[in-house]
Specification:
Length: 604
């Protein structure tokens, strides 16, 4: 089948579908002869949107190839543009069509959350789905940015930071009250009404409405001073200082922006980076770089439109999105998302967008340099280890335990794009009799891994943390599997356990060491260390969880249901350990006798 015939056939199918396409909002799918989805799109009017694809000479080469492969189309009608956007995003993530611009966005941003239904709300870090009755502030690009804001809020507004369990069970103020970073609502040092006033001030500050808060505090400080209440005056003085420091840290260029995201794009040789900055209340809450896939021949306008559509389908909306390039389907996006998308030609906002374009440029240059470095290492790895091809997926395995306890196996995945953290896996060792035997543990891990292997997650290289014994053990357990296109390499510690002097082992080959401090040696050490880090982290979580529960398990008369009731009531083992007998008796199912046993256990 020639390319010309393909295009004609594709255009015929397209024309047939234009005749029957609905003139309503919805989503359309283009499908090839193998029933694979080529493209998923959204539209306010499906018929008008797909007519654009029939103007073949106006399309970029990428979309011309797509039209040539169309063999049928499907339409889904929805009630509104917003629902079309959400459905499109859901289908793109699920199907990963060949001609859609894909955003690898598995990032959930941290927020500050405030439960408005509580008498004494606490501001805390939060990730996840938004709940009714809560107020959210953010997003923040990192946990560090959230911690900085929390630190400032505690100094300026004296809000509590303790857990609900500690709050309910305190009998005297904690250290935070002593150092003037909390108003101690837990022991009645502040009334519900006055604490709510502090919350309202903090909310105004976070929403960028804090222009007169310092003046109000100054007035209250003066009133306290005039009444000879010098202790209260000093509290207001410290709060004013904290707010003054915040105001000084605010960037002049962001000062008048209350709630905006700035999205800037930079493209080079079919590579693309989009930088997005989060600005809230005149402060920069951090930034993130994104590198959309399948952007060949796509314009900046098309890429940015696809990014905004995908990103805001699953992230909280600002009041405004400032862009460096007019996005495709801007009107549709504004209507579907309910936000303003603005491109500024002059002024401070245009200057900010231009600056973020430079950030995107530098981020893309760093990524290209890193990928080039990784690719060079993978090419050298192919030659040094005699691989059939440049590896695209390397799986690295490691075990972690303490004398057989809390044993886990871990797998990390390295690709030409770097570490693929979505593909990391942990394996709880099921056979308790082998947890002191590293060879047997690795056998169990690899056997379970191969049982779940498919075409999509087939590795080119398996790297084991171990020596010849580990290598032979794994080959023995995998003897019934086809290993013809999988290289298995073991890496053992070098002389005096020096990093960079490791030995590498393959079946039927002599063991060897790479040149000390060579780029490939560093790369191999890096991916091995990542597996070690992941294995130890998983082991610590398992051990910590076990130790957390085991304390209650040791108390006679505290079974599963009572343990659950205690944890639900107090929130943590630490809070249970601090509770009095009378407080323990308030828990459903806990008698006086059981409460005494629990109290005595923690106060031996």
């Amino acid at each position: 089948m020639t390319a010309t015939f393909d295009i004609k056939k594709g255009l015929e199918i397209l024309e047939q579908n234009i005749k029957i396409a609905p003139e309503k909002p919805g989503v359309y799918r283009m499908i090839d002869e193998n029933e694979k989805v080529l493209y998923v799109g959204k539209a306010k009017n499906i018929k008008k949107r797909i007519v654009a694809y029939s103007r073949i000479n106006q399309l970029p080469a990428r979309l011309q190839r797509m039209v040539a492969q169309i063999r049928r189309m499907e339409f889904i009608i929805v009630e509104s543009e917003a629902k079309a956007l959400l459905l499109e995003n859901e289908l793109i993530k699920k199907l990963e069509p060949k001609y859609n611009i894909l955003l690898k966005d598995d990032k959930t941003f941290p927020y500050l959350s405030l439960n408005l239904k509580e008498d004494f709300p606490v501001l805390k870090k939060y990730r996840g789905a938004k709940k009714n009755g809560y107020k959210y502030f953010g997003p923040f690009a990192s946990v560090g940015a959230v911690n900085d804001v929390l630190d400032l809020l505690q100094k300026a507004f004296l809000l509590r930071s303790c857990s609900d369990a500690n709050f309910r069970n305190r009998e005297r103020p904690c250290l935070m009250y002593q150092i003037k970073r909390c108003s101690a609502p837990c022991v009645g040092k502040i009334s519900k009404k006055d604490y709510r006033a502090l919350i309202d001030e903090a909310v105004r500050f976070l929403e960028g409405k804090s222009t007169n808060i310092q003046e109000e505090m100054s007035q209250k400080m003066q009133e306290a001073s005039d009444s000879c209440d010098f202790e209260t005056a000093m509290v207001f003085r410290d709060r004013i200082r904290a707010l003054t420091n915040v105001q000084q840290e605010k960037s002049v260029e962001y000062g008048n922006i209350k709630s905006a995201d700035v999205a800037a794009i930079y493209t080079e040789h079919n590579h693309c980076c989009i930088q997005i900055f989060f600005i809230r209340g005149g402060q920069n809450c951090g930034n993130m770089a994104f590198f959309p896939k399948q952007t060949e021949d796509a314009s900046q306008s098309e890429i940015l439109g696809a990014f905004l559509s995908s990103f805001y389908a699953s992230h909280q909306l600002p009041e405004e999105v400032i862009v460096s390039t007019e996005p495709e389907d801007k009107g549709f996006l504004q209507e579907a998302l309910g936000i303003k998308i603005n491109l500024y030609q002059r002024g401070i906002k245009a200057k900010i967008a231009d600056n973020i374009v430079q950030n995107a440029k530098e981020a893309l240059e760093r990524k290209i340099a890193l990928e080039t470095s990784i690719l060079n290492n993978l090419k050298e790895m192919q030659q040094v280890f005699g691989l059939a091809k440049v590896p695209r997926r390397i799986e690295v395995y490691d075990n972690s335990h303490i004398q057989g306890s809390y044993a886990v196996g871990a797998m990390i995945v390295a690709t030409p794009d770097g570490f693929d953290r979505k593909s990391y896996r942990t394996f709880n060792i099921k056979n308790s009799e082998i947890t002191n035997d590293d060879f047997a543990m690795m056998k169990e891990v690899l056997t379970r891994r191969f049982e779940s292997m498919n075409e999509a997650n087939h590795p080119d290289v398996i790297l084991l943390d171990g020596g010849l014994g580990q290598l032979h053990a794994v080959h023995e357990c995998l003897k019934d599997y086809d290993l013809s296109d999988i290289a298995i390499i073991a890496i053992s510690k070098g002389p005096e356990r020096n990093a960079g002097k490791e030995f590498y082992h393959q079946m039927g080959k002599e063991s060897f060491a790479l040149p000390f401090r060579s780029p490939l040696a560093f790369y191999m050490q890096n991916i091995r260390d990542e597996a070690h880090r992941f294995a130890i982290g998983t082991h610590r979580k398992k051990r910590g969880k076990s130790m957390f529960v085991s304390q209650l398990d040791e108390i006679e008369g505290v079974g599963h249901d009572r343990k659950k009731s205690l944890l639900n009531h107090f929130g943590s083992v630490e809070a249970i350990s601090q509770a009095s007998v009378m407080e323990l008796q308030k828990v459903s199912g806990i008698s006086k006798k059981t409460a005494e046993k629990i109290f005595n256990y923690f106060h031996k």
